[in-house]
Amino acid sequence: MNDYLKHLAQEAALGRMGRREFLGRAAALGVAALGANTLLATAAKAAGPQKGGTIRIGIQGGSSADSLDPALAANATATSVSRLWGEPLVELDPMGGIWHRLAESYDASADARVWTFKIRQGVTFSNGKELTAEDVLATMERHSGEESKSGALGIMRGIKSMRAEGSDFIIELDEPNADLPYLLTDYHLLIQPGGGKDDPAAGIGTGPYILKSVEPGVRFVAEKNPNYWDDSLGHADTIEFIVINDDTARVAALQSGQVHMINRVPPRTARLVDRAPTIDVRETAGPGHYVFIAHCDKDPFANNDVRIALKYGINRQEMVDKILNGYGSIGNDTPINSSYPLFTELEQRTYDPDKAKFHMQKSGYDGSILLRTSDNSFPGAPDAAALFQQSLSAAGINLEIKREPNDGYWSEVWNKQPFCTSYWGGRPTQDSMFSTAYLSTADWNDTRFNNEQFDQLLYAARAELDEAKRTQMYADMSTMVRDEGGLVCPMFNSFIDGVSTEVDGWVDAKTGFELNNFYAPMKMWVKA
Amino acid sequence: MNPVLKLLAQRIALSLFLLLMISALIFAGTMILPGDVAQSILGQSATPEALANLRADLGLNDPPLTRYFEWLFGALQGDLGTALTSGQDITSAIGSRLSNTLFLAFWAAIIAVPLAIFLGLLAVRYKDRWPDKLISGVTLASISIPEFLIGYVLMYLIAVKLRWFPSVAMINDSMSLWQKLNSIALPVAVLTLVVLAHMMRMTRAAILNVMQSAYIETAELKGLSTFKVIWRHAFPNSVAPIVNVVMLNLAYLVVGVVVIEVVFVYPGMGQYLVDHVSKRDVPVVQACGLIFAAVYIGLNMVADIVSILSNPRLRHPK
After folding, report:
1. Source organism's superkingdom (chain B) (predicted)?
2. Which CATH number fits domain A87-196: 1.20.1440.20, 3.90.76.10, 3.50.50.60, 3.40.30.10?
3. Average pLDDT for chain A
């Protein structure tokens, strides 16, 4: 049977059989879809990447106000395009762990306080200059300087000193941190010549492609960098990004064959789009989640019973079915799910109107609760708020919904008002997720979670190199957030990408962002 | 002085004054927008330090009046400043966007205006008979359906099913004129459908109005054919209202097509403006506002002048 399956996979990889047909036959042989998909990917790789051609991507999330400066990248387009021309030291491996890019290897001191990154030699920037540890140092300085506008400034703060020695780049930390390499996978931290201090938006780096045409919010064209050091990346001669923010237009562009792949297929129509024989819809589970956040220090949410009542009063499965159309998984009131490296499954909280009612009565609060929401807080947020209102009313709790304008939601409502809808993209490790949003001193502690024991555990876990102990610590912290925090997390959303069958080489991923953590255009190739 | 020249000078001076007033309004309007440009640029991932640094860098701490006059003098010299968000020079960025918008508007107008006037004449010729009712019915239906829906329907039928024209109307300098026209075929079709009814109905109404006059009866009694009566005798006397409505629609084609631009991913001014409004990029918003106002005022001025020149009574006042 095994040989037969392999034969089928080969046929499918060579394009003699459709992917769906293959999955169907594999299922008939009793092979689960995931296993069959992996087999198919392996066979496709064996068939080999083909060089040449143009890959076109229709991408959502770009604006004509975008800059090429990676420090200011804040949307899918800016992040994808910067991955064409630039590279970080280390990157997230799609199946978990670290993928070495410009850092050939790294080492930590025994107390995880001093980290040494060995910089790859013989790599040149697209302006001809050779990459040195000095460039790495300058880049990190630019992102951590006092005047920095970098989105990565927050994670650079724990650094005590940095220096370059020969081909080594050395970081010394204030506090031990076993997760430092994961932090350095932050998408802003692309190495630029001289750190990009003179011209941060020049678009010059060591990446597999060189930008040829830049029209922010419209179109980006890049051609293969002939001197690129890694053969496994960058198969097409030309990559073209077309910014298509309108959902219907983006799907139509894929259906009409104008582009080879698109990100963010709307969940509502994803199954319909997948029916077309020339299109595969790919779902990637990730750490991103859609949330209702209550400030733990403001009435009525200051009373933990009110928060518990809200957590029992939400129907998680219904949200996944109706808001995500099944493209996602249920949450458990903690930001951590199985895409994190040291994950422990906690007991699942389920919808229980009786318990919600009990806790609400216990709290002594009998007024209504005001929830603020907007269309851009997450896709379908107003609908999710209405579902929450219904499920709470079964527990006798009155939820009032206030619709806020998209404009200014992130500056006027989120992190300011006591109860609102929002989303988190997630982080590569528990440590960075908790330090970003649950540490009592964090800037974005958007639930005003203030727990001394939690903070102490967070610091202790950073210095703990024993994996079993660390896993237990993170499980304890998740439990604290789940039982005492202001986070009501009904669902984790998957990334949904659409890929044409004219391109091949899709890699399944457990972690990272959409389009295979933005690397799909470079990992895939045009079928001959 | 020639009264026509005097009239032109008056109109132009008045328009410029109006534009100056509008510039003040635009500036005041952008001042009272809620939110903060630094927060919008950095989005959810902003830290307080990064925000403060960016704010100082962007000059958001200067008094508004100083900024208004600096901006106005710059704009008079053709310098619209630099975009706060991307650091690009606004004049050059707008230049290419504006030429794209004008390109689309031009081709839509080339098709829509003659077609609307011709259909209007046809409707008058066959007044209250089936061609008139058919033309009115179809054009009124197309103006009543929201433009994005027409766009989606055409996209589905023509781009996805038949694959005649692309759904993404992307144009760039390396394309030949023919490729560009192929690329914008769908948005031009939608825009034509959207503006047709208004101009057609106005042409029909204006000519029918004139058709009641005694001199039309004279022309008919001379034995001229109906179409010749309409074209030679009725049409010239109904030019004023027609030009007015044509100019309004041309202005719409330049400043009001953001929905079509979004649906067909066309890199025009509307999308550029909306992107920057949501990012609180005030200099760009002001520049776009000024250009849009200038287009509106300019086209209305042309309409005024044409209607005056087309009327002998206004052309030779006693």
Report:
1. Bacteria
2. 3.90.76.10
3. 88
